[in-house]
Amino acid sequence: MNTVTLKINGTEVTANEGTTVLEAARSLGIDIPTLCAYDELEPAGVCRLCMVEITQGKKTRLVTSCVYPVENGLEVQTETDGVNKIRKMLIELLLPVAPSGPINALAKRYGVEKSRFQSDERKEPTNCSLCGLCVRYCEQVVGEHAVGFIGRGVDRKVALLPGKGDECAFCRKCYSICNSGRFVEMAEVFPDQP
Ligand code: FES
User: Is domain 3-82 annotated with CATH 3.40.640.10?
Assistant: First the structure.
């Protein structure tokens, strides 16, 4: 397999062609925040938290590292002011959240205490970021289409699709990968679950 060499935060790294900037950064132990990336799933570029700054020649721009392929000579910065400003805004858009879970941890990491965008319509804290991991996992790994999005705007949420409750009752594999740590909407369907 061909390899390419790039620099991430000033450190040179060699990566296989076709892999992503996120994977190359992780191989260096660099922690780029993610909510919708999962090894067993095709990257979907949904949450945008993995945004990084890349420079090619004289051009600098922001890209989504979980879907951006490594390239020879690429220079990547993972925590610039511009990158962190966007991450803060994305985290604000996810608030309010319950007091524990990955979004709360991200808010602490990036110093986000409240949201400029918080609407009165969404008063109930949740840890569901609508990252869609459960939906994609059900489709791509389990081979079912039992979980999906319903509703729009602030009412958008993840739910069991009609007639799929029995299959989910025996599977529940998406519980273990849910970013919220507890599959909030599913808990409404299976109240005995955490
Ligand atoms: S992890 Fe890249 S967009 Fe969500």
Answer: no
